[in-house]
Amino acid sequence: MRLTQYFLPVLKETPAEAQIVSHRFMLRAGMIKQQSAGIYSWLPLGFKMLRKIENIVHDEQIRAGHIPIQMPILQGADLWRESGRYDDYGEEMLRMQDRHGHDLLFTPTAEEMVTDIFRSHVKSYKDLPKTLYQIQWKFRDERRPRFGVMRGREFYMKDGYNFDLTKEDALHAYNRHLVSYLRTYERMGLQAIPMRADSGPIGGDDTHEFLVLAETGESEVFYDSAVTDISLGQRDIDYRSHEQCRAILDEFTTLYARTDETHDAALFETVPTERRRSARGIEVGQIFYFGTKYSEPMGATVQGPDGKPTPVHMGSHGIGVSRLLGAIIEASHDDKGIIWPEGVTPFTCGIVNLKQGDTDADAACEALYGELSAAGLEPLYDDRTERAGGKFATMDLIGLPWRITVGPRGLKNGVVELTSRRTGESEDMSPAAAIARIKDIYAAHPQPKGL
RNA sequence: CGGGGCGUGGCGCAGUCUGGUAGCGCACCUGUUUUGGGUACAGGGGGUCGUAGGUUCGAAUCCUGCCGCCCCGACCA
Fold first, then answer.
1. N or C: more exposed end of chain A, with fewer CB within 10 A?
2. Strand nucleotide closest to residue A90 (CA to C1')
3. Which nt sits closest to A197, CA to C1'?
4. Pick from A346, A356, A366, A262: which is nearest to A51 by CA?
5. What SS3 class is residue A74?
6. What are the backbone dihedrals phi and psi of residue A180, each rounded to the nearest 5 degrees, phi first?
7. At what angle do helices A167-187 and A44-63 cross, to 10 degrees?
8. What residues pair up with A380 in beta bridges, in sequence order?
9. Contact at 8 Å (CB) between A136 and A73?
10. Nearest alpha carbon to residue A252 among A169, A171, A196
């Protein structure tokens, strides 16, 4: 993308309403525009990042064997009356009526509807297990929306639902989700720690939340510092293996890690003093096993081998896609702006032309831009006739991991400058070497495919 | 929903106490100049002062209602 062809309304000054760093940078980098309390328009850069994150989530869900679907944003009230949640959900559920006076609601989650889909089409145990998921806009009428997209009323969420014949199978689905979530977060450069949590209005027996440690987090968390040393890394995972998924769950959830909701002070005392930590965290996902809580009242049964109808065992699992955008920025920024991890960045690198209009500089930039684009490595070329300072400030603000700086002086020596946004370190090299380096870097950080 | 605060051009703000018909910086447009880490100068466009009503010769300013937004708290991906 050429910057002069793009729509990137960056701000020099911070809008007064933005209190936390991710919100400030999202506004300043021209990613979002607030339209109402907790409701945002997604401008090109923000929309692009939302899609990137979404695509990582898709990649990792599909890898785990889960099947994408899409359910409507507006749902009829009847299904929710069946499960009993129409009355239970409370003020957070935004309700409305259509012209016929039928009650509708803006979906805050979709257990009812997915259960309806399942019961309409699946009749035999032979069709199990199945996990269906969607990435869709949700609406929860929060009492107090805040922190930009971190607690919006409208938010983009991946919600998945597993259907299994037995509790054992459903628990494997739970473990499998935990593993796939860990992998999803790691790919975004985030460390999200699974913590034992409360089930809230979803209900159920087993539940873990995934928390990214950050000062601005809304949850208070308590953990054994050893949990921060564990990572999935590059290991091969067979998502069909009950044993392997179970082993990874044990590996990640044995050490003490809980939110304030489930914190057990006495148990925490058993953690060695020097490893006891209390901190703040951002909740970026949650997984539940709730058995037959919905399948029984809603009649989601399959015929078992014995011919008898059996209610299916279910769980649901969520990742806050729009919130992740805020969480990544909270976890990765400096005073100048965002620092995207290579795994999720709107563009792989920036090309800064220090002297637009200089024949050599223009030609060198065009060549870099053309070759990187042809290689599928989407660069952002700052071809504005602005003074260099403004170009650097813009690049720093929007946080592309790498920048290639091209100017007439360097070109006289046959070099351009490759700079890391994270370390700020620069290196002079030939344009060909810079391209090779960018290719190498992103070979190790493949960009998401999505659907 | 309880407590607090704020609505003045796209953004950040002054002006409100003490009424006299709107100003600054940034951004934007034009021109010249400049260009290696947010150039300089000159000219210019853009504002029903959130909104409705009231007081007054006169309201951004005083009074009342309403709307919106932000912060703290209690609830949540």
1. C
2. B75
3. B76
4. A346
5. strand
6. -65, -30
7. 140
8. A350
9. yes
10. A196
Determine the distance between A7 (CA) and B61 (C1') in angstroms. 40
Of all protein residues, which has its CA closest to the C1' atom of B11? Answer: A13
The answer to whether A174 and A289 have CB atoms below 8 angstroms apart is: yes
Q: Distance, angstroms, CA A9 to C1' B33?
A: 27
Strands (E), A232-378: 257-259, 276-291, 301-303, 309-311, 313-320, 333-334, 337-338, 349-353
> What is the rounded distance in angstroms from the CA atom of residue A96 to the CA atom of residue A94?
7
Å from A147 (CA) to B64 (C1')?
A: 34
Span A142-172, pLDDT tens digits: 989 999 999 999 999 999 999 999 999 999 9
- Spatial distance from the CA of A356 to the C1' of B32 (Å): 19
**Counting beta carbons within 10 angstroms of the beta carbon of residue A328, is it exposed (0 to 12), middle (13 to 18) or buried (19 or more)?**
buried
ipTM: 0.93
Query: Each residue of A342-398: pLDDT tens digit?
Result: 999 999 999 999 999 899 999 999 999 999 999 999 999 999 999 999 999 999 999
